[in-house]
Specification:
Blueprint: E1 3-5, E2 8-10, H1 13-18, E3 22-24, H2 39-54, H3 56-59, H4 62-73, H5 79-105, H6 109-127, H7 135-159, H8 169-195, H9 201-223, H10 237-245, H11 248-264, H12 266-277, H13 282-310, H14 312-329, H15 336-363, H16 371-383, H17 388-396, H18 403-436, E4 443-445
Antiparallel strand pairs: 1-2, 3-4
Helix pairs in contact: 2-7, 2-8, 2-9, 4-5, 4-8, 4-12, 5-7, 5-16, 5-17, 6-7, 6-9, 8-9, 8-13, 8-15, 11-15, 11-16, 11-18, 12-13, 13-15, 14-15, 14-18, 17-18
Length: 454
């Protein structure tokens, strides 16, 4: 007998007790399907590639400016003071990633892209009006304004790839990151030929760069698109930091990125000046940075081919160890052959490290709604130690004692490798615990409602 309830009724308790209808708890709402390809997905990759080409790729070319400022344009300033321009630029690019990452998570992707691109172009036009021996003018335009513009776009242009790719995300991020390496090849060639041109001069040379970037950034903004809505809720800053701090592998990776960065920029900032001061052919010295950045371009493509097989965490740990050894090897740079060897090998390794930063943070992130904040925090921490080049300049002194900065940078890079090795151990342990302690599906015993299928 059943008790009426509208047009339906519940079966009596004795009968329902005999029948144990098993009902599996409803699955969570499925996430939006990620295409892992298609025109819009690859167009977004192309746009992000151009953002990296114009942003971090241009910042990575500061070695050309360092050489030009020290020997020609800012003769009244020391190498250490001049290196603060590039260091502060990269510091803002990376440290601004935490703010940009949180804004990205809240749905401000297009605002960040448009505003950052405009500011990058505006800063270069402002730099073209900087007067000779006016360090503060160059610092404000190139160090501050350009850094803010590039920092607004750096993390979002990588994080947006997660909207379009899942299985092929490592490959897509590798292609995006390679944009900065290609930029670090093209920009030095153009700058070395325009800055030293008697026909153009400093102002027009910088305006040529500004014109190139304006066209490429406009195209990039037209290509990139988001697909997924921002999360409805987000943790407060204190809650976010507290949650991230409990992830040992993430903390070790963030420390590794930060400490390794202290030594990372020494070859990028000083290889060309090193070659010049050691009396090598001026034309060869101009292209020493191009040699390094060309190898870096190849190094940024390589992880996309082998990362799935070897693992992102293992690759960045091995690359950081090789990078530390090569930085120490700069102590012995004396000839063209040694410049080529260090440039090619370090360029390849450095390119791999930079490319693997993004995929590493993706691998260490379980909740993709936190990806922007996690990337931003780690990238910001890696920007804080960009005081490395000014310290290198102080150690170098006006007498150009080259072994001091090479030793300091190499030791810091080795310490970063130690953090990556710790991350590798912790990440492997957490993966084993998750596999061993995976919970069984939740099964709930409920009485069946007559006439209603569930």
């Amino acid at each position: 007998m059943s008790t009426g309830y509208g047009s339906h009724g519940l079966e009596n308790g004795a009968e329902s007790g005999k029948r144990k209808h098993r009902e599996i708890a409803p699955p969570p709402v499925a996430a939006a399907t990620i295409s892992d390809g298609g025109f819009q997905a690859w167009a977004t990759v192309a746009g992000s590639f151009l953002i990296m080409f114009c942003g971090f790729g241009y910042s990575s070319s500061f070695g050309v400016y360092q050489d030009f400022y020290v020997r020609t344009y800012l003769l009244q300033s020391s190498p250490s003071a001049i290196s603060w321009i590039g260091s502060v630029n990269i510091f803002i690019v990376l440290s601004g990633g935490f703010i940009a990452g949180r804004l990205y998570d809240r749905g401000y992707f297009y605002t960040l892209m448009y505003s950052g691109s405009f500011l990058m172009v505006l800063s270069l036009f402002a730099l073209s009006f900087a007067q000779r021996n006016k360090l503060y003018q160059v610092f404000l335009a190139q160090g501050i304004a350009n850094g803010i513009g590039a920092g607004m776009t750096y993390v979002p242009c990588m994080a947006v790839i997660s909207h379009h790719f899942q299985k092929r995300r490592a490959l897509a991020l590798t292609l995006v990151a390679s944009g900065s390496s290609l930029g670090a090849v093209v920009h030095p060639i153009m700058l070395n030929n325009t800055l030293h041109s008697t026909r153009l001069g400093f102002a027009n040379a910088v305006r040529v760069s500004a014109g190139l970037l304006s066209g490429l950034l406009l195209l990039a903004c037209c290509l990139m698109r988001t697909r997924l809505p921002p999360p409805k809720t987000s943790l407060r800053l204190g809650q976010t930091l507290s949650k991230f701090a409990r992830d040992g592998a993430y903390v070790a990776a963030t420390l590794g990125l930060g400490i390794f960065t202290v030594g990372f920029y020494y070859p990028l900032f000083y290889l060309q000046l090193d070659a010049t001061k050691h009396g090598l052919d001026p034309t060869f010295a101009f292209y020493s940075l191009v040699i390094m950045n060309s190898a870096s371009f190849a190094g940024r493509l390589a992880p996309g081919i082998v990362a799935q097989r070897l693992g992102v965490a293992r690759m960045i740990t091995a690359a950081s160890a090789c990078g530390a050894v090569l930085i120490l090897g700069m102590i012995g740079v004396r000839s063209e052959a040694s410049v080529v060897v260090v440039g090619v090998l370090y360029g390849f390794v450095a390119g791999s490290v930079v490319t693997l930063m993004g995929p590493l943070l993706v691998v260490l992130t379980e909740d993709m709604s936190e990806l922007g904040a996690r990337m931003g925090l780690s990238v910001a921490f890696s920007g804080a130690p960009s005081t490395g080049p000014p310290i290198d300049g102080l150690l170098l002194t006006s007498k150009f004692i080259w072994w001091r900065p090479a030793l300091f940078s190499g030791v810091m890079a080795l310490a970063g490798f130690g953090c990556f090795a710790t991350m590798l151990v912790l990440h492997g342990g957490s993966q084993r615990r998750r596999r061993a302690g995976a919970p069984e599906p939740v099964v709930v015993e409920l009485p069946k409602i007559k006439g209603c299928d569930v």
